[in-house]
Amino acid sequence: QVQLVESGGGLVQPGGSLRLSCAASGRIFRLNAMGWYRQAPGKERELVARIRTIGITNYADSVKGRFTISRDNAKNTVDLQMNSLKPEDTAVYYCYVNMGLDYWGQGTQVTVSS
Questions:
Q1: Of all helices (H) and strands (E), which one includes residue 5?
Q2: What DSSP string runs through 13-75?
Q3: Running along the chain, 114 residues long, what does each successive block of 10 average in pLDDT?
Q4: What are phi and psi of 34, to 5 degrees?
Q5: Would you say 105 and 95 are in contact if contact means Cβ atoms under 8 Å apart?
Q6: Which residues of 7-36 are buried (b: 16+ CB within 10 A; e: fewer)?
Q7: CA–CA separation, 63 vs 38, rounded Å?
Q8: How far apart are the C-alpha atoms of 27 and 41, rounded to whole Å?
Q9: DSSP state at residue 90
């Protein structure tokens, strides 16, 4: 079994910043891509950012230049630094890792509102 524990969500004003963290534990033998998805009310889950083992990153167009994903392969963690947050970034954010199969965290709420 693989467990993913997310932290760092919360309420922030527009223009503010948050940092999400995700730690993987359990039967980890090889982590391929790691990343973050999000799902807003009434919308489908969408990719926010992804980082591969060698550090190649992909971002949704809507977050490019504002969000930065990073990973620590020694600690099996993936972080998402979110700056210049907008109300439309409000969603539940899910961490995921790929080890042949995808594993998901339980989600953390991010609310951007004044």
A1: strand 2-7
A2: -TT--EEEEEEEEES-S----EEEEEE-TTS--EEEEEE-TT--EEE-TTTTTTEEEEEETTT
A3: 94 98 91 95 96 94 98 95 98 95 95 97
A4: -130, 150
A5: yes
A6: ebbeebeeeeebebbbbbeeeeeebebbbb
A7: 12
A8: 33
A9: -
- Residue 5: both structure tokens together: 């524990």
Query: What is the β-pairing status of strands 77-82 and 91-99?
Result: unpaired
User: For residue 56, what are its two tokens?
Assistant: 């190649």
pLDDT score at 30: 84
User: Residue 6 is which amino acid?
Assistant: E
Structure-block tokens of residue 109 = 């709420």
DSSP SS3 for 78: strand
Using DSSP's 3-state secondary structure scheme, residue 82 falls into strand
